Amino acid sequence: MRLLLVEDDNHVAAALSAVLARHGFDVTHARSGEEALQALVPEGAGFGVVLLDLGLPDQDGYEVCGKIRKRTGTPVIMVTARSDVRSRIHGLNLGADDYVVKPYDTGELLARIHAVSRRTPHVDDTGDTRTALRLGPVRIELPTRQVSVDGTAVALTRKEFDLLALLAQRPGVVFRREQIISEVWRTSWEGTGRTLEVHVASLRSKLHMPALIETVRGVGYRLVAPAG
């Protein structure tokens, strides 16, 4: 997922960007409100989430949030030290999707990012909103969570669908095991690795396409788009 981090403190931005990158995010850093607004042209520029710090040098963060909301439906999470209820309500009324108060737990922040992105239709790197993914004979309907192969419906569990949809969004790209666990199970790697392996095996079996999901030894998995 592409993420726009709006933060004027370079040290904070560098540390947070490193954490987000380890969890599979492609982070773009904007140091001011104007940089953020330019980065979102045209129509959100394919970003999945905007992480907006309110303490910006050129514009009030609330003002920036309002401008973002007029330009795009990309989810916005406000990050601020202002913890009073009135500030939160003001931010939400301006169109923010969530509000995180400093200091925050990184795990909570990641969970909130995933939560707001799940409530939003997938946006690809060109800014196009997609409701279905087509990979050869495999069709994945994102809004209805239905999967079919050559027109025949395949019953998947919730986590099987989430795993397949994640890999299918970027065919050929290797997703690290830690990244998959974070996005699909919303937890850390410890104790969940075997669960991931079982779900991959189940998908290969149910879809009758053992070569669809390739294991990249020591790294993770990638989806190999079939022909046709």
From TrEMBL:
Residues 130-225 bind DNA. It holds the Pfam family Trans_reg_C. The modification 4-aspartylphosphate is found at residue 53. Keywords: DNA-binding, Phosphoprotein, Transcription, Transcription regulation. Residues 130-225 form the OmpR/PhoB-type domain. It comes from the Bacteria. InterPro entries: CheY-like_superfamily (IPR011006), OmpR/PhoB-type_DNA-bd (IPR001867), Sig_transdc_resp-reg_receiver (IPR001789), WalR-like (IPR039420), WH-like_DNA-bd_sf (IPR036388). Residues 2-117 form the Response regulatory domain. CDD domains: trans_reg_C. This is Sensory transduction protein RegX3. It comes from Streptomyces tropicalis.
